[in-house]
Amino acid sequence: MTITTLGLDADDTLWHSENHFAVTERRFTDLLEPWVAGDEAARRLLDRERANLKVFGYGVKGFTLSMIETAIEASDGAVDAGAVQQIVEWGKEMMAHPVELLPGVAETIDVLGRSHRLVLITKGDLFHQETKIAESGLAAEFEAIEILSEKSPDTYRRVLGDLGVEPTQFAMVGNSLRSDVLPVIGIGGRGIHIPYGILWGHEHVEEAPDDPRFHQLARFAQLPELLDGLTTP
Fold first, then answer.
1. Torsion angle in degrees (nearest 10) through CA of 40, 44, 45, 46
2. Which residues are CB-contacts of 134 (< 8 A; sequence separation ≥ 6)?
3. Which end of the chain is more exposed for a tag (fewer CB within 10 A), N or C?
């Protein structure tokens, strides 16, 4: 079977996202310097984000609340209201940041849409993701848009079931091996990895899968060439 349906991740696949988190994290670690060193502050923040995922989910809002909680814990409650307000303002800046498409995305999606069903599959805060999708100008290119709380084999099975697509007819494109590639390969689809320059620690995977259904590209614009004639084993 050929690939009929293409799933596309959003953040750091279609547009920049993690670089905004990285800038804010550097500001945050600078803020905590009176109490903990930068590397330790970053480690504590990542630990707190992971612990809070089941409560706040993914996205800027959970990140902001995790920064506040980490600041209070790291300073033993000494952090003042002004610093907490500054963290809140950083979160608001991130929420309001304009969407910046990655190079070649708009043109390549136009090409892909002529030969494949396109589905946007992302995770994160519903309101923020809906806002970014609308601002991107790409919404009309997708047959369906799925904003998930988590990307797992079960959620991908559910999405493909709703679309009436067999896993062997499906390929998922994204910057995260953990979220975009491994779960899809696990259910019998193909995973196409396009690394972004920065990867959130929670998404880190030690090794790429040794599987014929795994592909890696350097640029989004290389997708049409890869998909031409691509068949499942």
1. 100
2. none
3. C
Please say if the pLDDT value at position 233 is more than 70. no
What is the CB-side half-sphere exposure of residue 227 using CA atoms within 13 A?
28
Q: CA–CA separation, 177 vs 141, rounded Å?
A: 24
d(C-alpha 28, C-alpha 41), whole Å: 8
Write the CATH number of the domain with boundaries 5-16+100-227: 3.40.50.1000
Question: If phi over 0 gives left and psi between -120 and 50 gives alpha, with beta otherwise, what is residue 12?
Answer: left
Q: Which residues pair with 101 in a beta bridge?
A: 15
Q: What is the pLDDT of residues 3-57, one digit of tens each?
A: 999 999 999 999 999 899 999 999 999 999 999 998 999 999 999 999 999 999 8
Pairing state between β 117-123 and 144-148: parallel
User: pTM for the whole thing?
Assistant: 0.90
- 1: confidence class by pLDDT, cuts 50, 70, 90: low
Homologous superfamily in CATH for domain 18-96: Putative phosphatase; domain 2 (1.10.150.240)
Q: Are 117 and 4 in contact (CB under 8 A)?
A: yes
- pLDDT, position 93: 96
Residue type, 126: L
CB 8 within 8 A of CB 194: no
CA dist 57 and 79 (Å) reads 25
Neighbouring CB atoms inside 10 A of 206's CB total 5
Mean pLDDT along residues 134-146: 96
